[in-house]
Write a structure and sequence with these properties.
There is one protein chain. The chain is of the alpha/beta class and about 325 residues long. Helix content is about 50%, strand content about 10%. The protein is built from 17 helices and 7 strands. Strands 2-3-1-4-5 form a 5-stranded parallel β-sheet, sandwiched between helices. A two-stranded antiparallel ribbon has the order 6-7. Helix 1 packs across helix 9, helix 7 runs parallel beside helix 15 and helix 15 packs antiparallel against helix 16. The relative contact order is 0.15. About 5% of the residues have low confidence.
Length: about 325
């Protein structure tokens, strides 16, 4: 699969957020024939669309260098950006799209904790309140919807569903398959220490001033220049020094803050997302000669996860 003409990306990691996408983007971005973009998530086809094509194009090296453009924007599968995937299809109909999937209940909670503890953009202090105030957490976990949207706009040979457990266990096997689909040699091997640096655990900034400075850099448009100048590896080391791990609530503690209606909603979402993903992975396995459905079933083994099943009598 060759390079797309014009501004569009050639390789897209469209979600789901909190499913190993940063880890996978880091491995793919180290390939000498992949341009990882000046920022990991340009979000051009979602929240930054009004900035225009020239802004998006400037985030990449000139096309003449022959490298494939990587866009790892998980917001393309957020519920409040329903036009993102159609826009992507319109500009880059030949793009290869990766969609990583994690146990939907665990993903939902991790997304909420990230917004609350790291970004500081979620005022709700309990999971139940967060579900009530922001539809992004549940909506992003509705894999049945997003798998259907991707299938509507891209042929199956251009979409790859990747179980979260495979991304975290063997990202290079995934990257090698992706590169083969794009007509590239496998990515260079890297040590586990480097790869582990890209695991995005939920953390918080040690000081509010650091969080403010980060927001200012993002909003001012200076972040692409900072990332290019400093380098992604050095930025991650700086981030590690400026943050600390959060003693986040467990799944049981989080669910205890949810009402009966929310628990039923979570159960319905989990069942539909699990089944749709399993069905899609079985079809993908048959086409590609893989065994990824089994990995998904081990990581997401039942219609009702233990944390919800234990509450069955209360619903």
């Amino acid at each position: 699969m060759g390079s797309s003409a014009g501004y569009g990306p050639d390789l897209v990691i469209a979600g789901a957020a909190r499913s190993g996408t940063s880890y996978l983007a880091a491995v793919l971005g180290r390939h000498p024939d992949v341009d990882p973009c000046a920022v990991k998530e340009p979000n051009f086809f979602s929240r930054e669309h009004e900035r225009g094509l020239e802004w998006y194009d400037d985030l990449y090296a000139p096309r003449g260098e022959g490298r494939l453009r990587l866009d790892a924007s998980t917001s393309y599968t957020y519920p409040h950006f329903p036009d993102a995937i159609p826009r992507l299809r319109s500009m880059a109909p030949h793009a290869f799209v990766l969609y990583a999937v994690r146990d939907p209940l665990a993903r939902t909670l991790s997304h909420y904790q990230l917004h609350r503890d790291y970004f500081g953009i979620e005022a709700a202090q309990t999971f139940g309140e967060g579900l009530s105030s922001n539809p992004v957490y549940l909506g992003t976990s509705e894999y049945d919807h997003w798998i259907a949207v991707l299938a509507e706009h891209f042929p199956p040979e251009q979409v790859l569903l990747v179980p979260f457990d495979l991304v975290t266990r063997d990202p290079h096997a995934v990257a090698a398959l992706v590169c083969g689909s794009l007509g590239l040699p496998p990515p260079p091997a890297e040590g586990s220490d480097h790869a582990d640096a890209h695991r995005n655990e939920v953390v918080e900034f040690r000081h509010g001033s650091i969080k403010w400075a980060r927001r200012f850099a993002k909003r001012s448009g200076a972040y692409p220049w900072i990332r290019r100048t400093v380098g992604t590896d050095r930025l991650r080391k700086m981030r590690a020094r400026m943050t600390r791990k959060v003693a986040a609530e467990s799944m049981d503690e989080a669910l205890a803050s949810c009402g009966p209606a929310q628990l039923n909603q979570l159960r319905t979402m989990h069942r539909a997302s699990r089944l749709a993903t399993l069905t899609a992975l079985r079809s993908q396995d048959e086409r590609r000669g893989l065994d990824w459905a089994a990995i998904w079933e081990r990581g997401c083994p039942s219609d009702d996860p233990p944390a919800l099943a234990a509450l069955h009598d209360d619903l």
